[in-house]
Design goal:
With 390 residues, this protein is an alpha/beta fold. The protein is 35% helix and 25% strand. The protein is built from 11 helices and 16 strands. Strands 1-2-4-3-5-16-6-15 form an 8-stranded mixed β-sheet, sandwiched between helices. The protein has a 4-stranded antiparallel β-sheet with strand order 10-12-8-13, covered by helices on one side. Strand 3, helix 4 and strand 4 form a beta-alpha-beta unit. The longest helix is centred in the last third of the chain and has 22 residues. The model has no long low-confidence stretch (mean pLDDT 96). Bound molecules: zinc ion (ZN) (2 copies).
Amino acid sequence: MSVIESVRPLHGKLTAIRRDIHAHPELAFEEHRTAELVARHLEALGIETHRGIGGTGVVGVVRGGRSLRAIGLRADMDALPITERNSFAHRSTVQGCMHACGHDGHTTMLLGAAEALVARKDFDGTVYLIFQPAEEGEGGAPAMIADGLFDRFPMEAVFGMHNWPGMEAGSFAIHSGPVMASADRFDIRFTGVGAHAAMPHLGVDPVVAGAAFVQAAQTLVSRTLDPIDAGVVSVTQFHAGEAYNVIPDRAELCGTVRTFAAEVRDRLERGLRQVAEGIAASHGVQLAFEYRRGYPPTINTADEAALCAEAARAVAGPERVFTDRRPSMGAEDFAYFLQEKPGAYVWIGNGPGEGGCTLHNPHYDFNDEVLPTGVAYWCQLARTLLSAAR
Ligand SMILES: [Zn+2]
Ligand SMILES: [Zn+2]
């Protein structure tokens, strides 16, 4: 019997679990109900279960055979501060909180894998099931690492999976190398001298300095990066002034920087500071500059990505596994796991095809039809990785 046929009987039960989690979303590091649901489910399967890792994180330990080899499979559990606009029965029961990124589905697929792995035991080694908190901007992955995840549960590689709307349901996209970008933030304040708008020579105008900065910052990508390298500099806020006839004394600008490579990231951070300093000097305004690094880029290792593709082909068929999709400039804290271990983070299509509801949209919902495929992929991946001697 194929892996997917063997997990199909779980579909009804998993759909009920997924909808229950969807109806009870919890924000980053507040996933107490979800973590308890996960831990109880694992314990009911007889799986060794560890709670409270990196806050609300949970790890389950599934052993098969006698090999000392081990891998980690990871799901995220948190929801977003969005008010759901769906009207179906399993819509969010919490005002201002919603599973709009499908982490309810990710958690459920890993719970399904737990059950199937215990039943199948067709791998030789240990599978650590990692249920992490706070993927959405708050850094649950580094919190688990800081709490000793990889020391307490030594593993040779770690794997993640995210649903991807706009890709056919149950198809896979697997990237060798970069899959998601880094996400940094900057805050800039130009302070000049306020004046009557009719007498600009009596003041120092920070608005003109700010406008010059917005223009000049765009030359960083176009003129200082290798054209083959990807980078985004977006100024997303520009606040200054409140009257028609007053030159304000300050202008505040904020934005985000996205890249796939450490050198590009360093260059853009350095370049933004240089541009801001140059603009400040040439316009005679004072500068306050702050650059904060967020999630690093998510970079899949080539060997592990190839093994993921092999497992996905066995589950979904070669015609539904894509290795030529462009990466996304979105960000993902699975990146921190991949800074520590080899591994790969793959996309599973959430349907329909082109168009449809995107992630983080108040009408989004995880597609329950995908559940058996995701579970089968995790099982097949464990078998692929923990069978052949590597
Ligand atoms: Zn998200
Ligand atoms: Zn997400």
